[in-house]
């Protein structure tokens, strides 16, 4: 994770690379019998520098029609797939992510699939994120490993059991 010395906004190169990998993988997948289009995917990041960094990388990949924005920019809007880049990876604070309203917006924008890219150990420092991670574990949602698509986006009943994240037991 890096911080801009002028704007103080953060960006995370490793997370951006993971976003690009997921986008390229998802562009080969189907939802409701049709291949995902760029317009079907939205990317949310809490920091303007990460939004800018991801947009630039997608542009270099020829993926200019994927919308990238902040939680505020997605308020009241939805996409079939939302990828969330949490950015913060230090062990001090979760920053903007501590705002429960932002988390609510981020987690309710996807119509079919939400992919969260981030450091769960860091996120668990915040009570709301801790409860969310505990919930996805209890519901056997996917976390803590690479999502391997198999020509469709899994439904709720198809989600696989996750392993403890960084040895953390959520019970």
UniProtKB/TrEMBL annotation:
SUPFAM superfamilies: P-loop containing nucleoside triphosphate hydrolases. InterPro entries: DNA2/NAM7-like, DNA2/NAM7-like_C, P-loop_NTPase, SF1_C_Upf1. One of its GO terms (cellular component) is P granule. GO terms for biological process: regulatory ncRNA-mediated post-transcriptional gene silencing. It comes from the Eukaryota. Residues 8-120 form the DNA2/NAM7 helicase-like C-terminal domain. PANTHER family: DNA2/NAM7 HELICASE FAMILY (PTHR10887), RNA HELICASE MOV10L1 (PTHR10887:SF419). This is DNA2/NAM7 helicase-like C-terminal domain-containing protein. It comes from Anopheles maculatus.
